[in-house]
């Protein structure tokens, strides 16, 4: 049994939808007071209301763009003011527009790197003083298998950004260790989010067929892994990347999958 995180103050960037919303739900149900962020107010409010209705810790939202340093500073200040500090930052906000390398523009690259890489770094910078003050500060990044482990045509900029998060993580983990803060990452495989539902059942079935556990990940699968990194019992784990993908990266070939 892990020590309870009830009463922790948790900031989840991109907590208004998808994986971030799942992370926020897992932490709130464990009794944490969560602030979620996003740019669109309707979805942020809907997510906060939906999770609040389940009981557990408080869930509120603040709007902001993680690619803006000023917005990240403001979002951290709001979480500190509302919940008395920040114990855990889940730097999860990310985008994944597709573009083949042959037609990719500099603007495409800047957008993906601005959100996924600079957004991660700005979020961590904004929360660092509060995380140090907490005495049990944790940073949990949402990276991906795409980039650090696998490739997918159309997502070279995205894959580079997700690998960059891990490069950042390793040095940040060293710089923040003397402050008592750990920095780790979750690497999701294919996760069932609202966006996937729009692709239809056939697309989903095709994706499930490539996963040894024969199902897509649920957002709670990622939330539970993030929760582990936040526990007292994970205090000695830092600079690590945890893949949560149902075994998706394991088959070395199509015939390996067929042989199962
Ligand atoms: P999603 O459903 O599109 O949600 C993305 C969240 O990030 C939303 O809350 C969105 O809110 C927010 N966001 C996006 N850009 C932002 C910005 N510039 N500033 C502030 N918030 C921003 O995406 P998801 O699938 O849950 O992905 C979440 C993370 O998981 C990403 O880092 C992604 O790379 C990673 N991931 C996802 C999968 C998967 O299968 N879904 C797999 C591997 C990794 P607004 O749009 O309102 O701003």
How would you describe this protein?
- With 260 residues, the chain is of the alpha/beta class.
- The chain has a single domain, classed as NAD(P)-binding Rossmann-like Domain (Rossmann fold).
- It has 9 helices and 7 strands, in the order E-H-E-H-E-H-E-H-E-H-E-H-H-H-E-H.
- It has a 7-stranded parallel sheet with strand order 3-2-1-4-5-6-7, with helices on both faces.
- The model has no long low-confidence stretch (mean pLDDT 97).
Structure annotation, total helices: 9
Number of domains: 1
CATH architecture identity:
3-Layer(aba) Sandwich
Give the radius of gyration. Answer: 18 Å
Bound molecules: NADP nicotinamide-adenine-dinucleotide phosphate
Q: For the report, how would you describe the main beta sheet?
A: 7 strands, parallel
* CATH-derived topology: Rossmann fold
Enumerate the strands of the largest sheet in spatial order, edge to edge or round the barrel: 3-2-1-4-5-6-7
Kindly state the number of beta strands.
7
SS-based structural class? alpha/beta
Which bin fits the share of residues in helices? 40-55%
Overall mean pLDDT: 97
Poorly predicted parts: none
* Name of the top-level CATH class: Alpha Beta
What percentage of amino acids are in beta strands? 5-15%
């Amino acid at each position: 049994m892990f020590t309870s995180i009830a009463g922790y103050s948790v900031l989840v960037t991109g907590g208004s939808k998808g994986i971030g919303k799942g992370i926020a739900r897992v932490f709130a149900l464990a009794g944490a007071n969560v602030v979620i962020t996003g740019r669109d107010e309707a979805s942020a409010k809907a997510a906060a209301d939906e999770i609040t209705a389940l009981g557990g810790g408080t869930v509120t939202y603040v709007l902001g763009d993680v690619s803006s340093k000023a917005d990240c500073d403001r979002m951290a200040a709001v979480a500190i003011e509302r919940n008395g500090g920040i114990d855990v930052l889940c730097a999860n906000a990310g985008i994944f527009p597709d573009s083949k390398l042959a037609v990719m523009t500099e603007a495409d690259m800047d957008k993906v790197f601005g959100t996924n890489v600079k957004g991660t770094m700005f979020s961590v910078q904004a929360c660092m003083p509060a995380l140090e003050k907490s005495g049990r500060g944790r940073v949990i990044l949402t990276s991906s298998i795409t980039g650090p482990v696998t490739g997918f045509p159309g997502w070279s900029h995205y894959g580079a950004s997700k690998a960059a998060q891990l490069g950042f993580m390793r040095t940040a983990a060293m710089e923040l260790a003397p402050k008592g803060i750990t920095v780790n990452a979750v690497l999701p495989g294919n996760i069932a989010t609202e966006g996937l539902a729009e692709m239809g059942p056939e697309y989903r079935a095709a994706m499930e067929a490539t996963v040894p556990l024969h199902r897509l990940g649920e957002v709670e699968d990622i939330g539970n892994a993030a929760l582990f990194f936040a526990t007292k019992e994970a205090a000695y784990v830092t600079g690590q990347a945890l893949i949560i993908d149902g075994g998706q990266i394991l088959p070395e070939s199509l015939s390996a999958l067929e042989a199962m």
